[in-house]
Amino acid sequence: MELRQLRYFIAVAEEGSFGGAAQRVHVTQPPVTRQIHALEQELKVTLFVRTPRGAILTEAGRVFLEEAREIIERSRRAGERSRAADRGEIGRLTVAFFGSSIYQAVPMILRRFRAQVPLAQIVLVSMGKDRQQEALRSGAIDIGFSRYFNPAPDIEVMTVAEEPLYVALPVEDNLAHATSLRLPDLIGRSLILFPSGNRPSFADAVLSALSAASVNLVIGAEAEDQTSALALVSIGSGICIAPEAVTSIRMPGVTFVRLAEPNITSPTHCAYLKANTTPILSAFMRSLSDKKPVKRAQEPRKVGKKR
C-alpha cells in the first residue's frame, strides 16, 4: 500500500468520480483507476460502487476513508516534524550541571533557549564535572555546565557567565551590616572552603584571590558543597566566599554581603563534544550567541535579621 494510492482513493471519495479525482491530482484517469483497483485487490474488499454518474463508497470504503485520511495526516505531521528536527527546532537536549551554576546561570541560559526553541524537550541531570566529560563522549548528555572543567582535546569549553562574589557571614558577625566588603576586611576570620575534592574548583579560585590580595585566612573547614558550607556558616563555624548564585539559598542565621573586588568573579563554563553535530545542539549553541539580556537573580536579602 502506497501513500499515492491513499491520496487517489481520498480524491475519488471526495470528488465522487474517477474523472474528477484525476483532475484534482493532476493525472489522467487510467492511472487513478488502476491504483484504486490495485488497492481493492490488496485489501480484498470493494471500496466503490461504480455507476454511470460516478463512484459511491461502500460501507468498507467509508471505514477505510477515515483511516486513509488519518494515515495521510500522520504522514504530513511526520514530515513536518522530521524537517523541524533537522533544523534543530524540536528534539531532546540532555543537560548536566554541577554545583551552584544551577541556581542562576543554567536556568537563565535554558530560558533563552526555550524561548527560541519552544518545542525542544530539555532534560536536566546533576552530574560531577569529570562524569560530564565521560557522558559527553558516550552521548548520554549533550551539554555540561560547571564552574571549572579539566581540559580535554575532544571537548570544547566556553565561558557563558560571570558572577560577582559575596561573603556569607553569621548574622552575629559585626561585618554583617556592611554594604560591601574587601578581602582585607576578612582578616581574622575562619574560612570555609567549598567544594572539597575534584580540583581544580571554585575553592582554588578563592585561595588564588586571597593570595593575590596578600590575605591569609585560617581554613576552618572544607565543605562538600555550597549548602554544607552555608550550614557551617549558620552555626558559627566561619565565613565563606560564594558566587552570586549561592545567595538564592536561604539558610537561617546567614547573611550575604557583596565582595567589592571588581576583578574577581566566578565563571560558569559550558562543555560539549566537538564531534557532536546534532541539529538540537547547533540550535542551543545559536541561542548562546544571542546577547539579549535575561532577567538576573534578585539582589540577596539580609537573611536572619529584622527588616
UniProtKB/TrEMBL annotation:
Instruction: Tell me what this protein is called.
Output: Transcriptional regulator, LysR family
Q: What is the lineage of its organism?
A: Bacteria, Pseudomonadati, Pseudomonadota, Alphaproteobacteria, Sphingomonadales
> What family does this belong to?
Belongs to the LysR transcriptional regulatory family.
Q: Which GO terms describe its molecular function?
A: DNA binding; DNA-binding transcription factor activity
Q: What residues does the HTH lysR-type domain cover?
A: 1-58
Q: Does the keyword Glycosyltransferase apply?
A: no
Q: Which GO terms describe its cellular component?
A: protein-DNA complex
Pfam families, sorted: HTH_1, LysR_substrate
Q: Which organism is it from?
A: Sphingopyxis flava
Keyword list (alphabetical) reads:
DNA-binding, Transcription, Transcription regulation
Domain of life per record = Bacteria
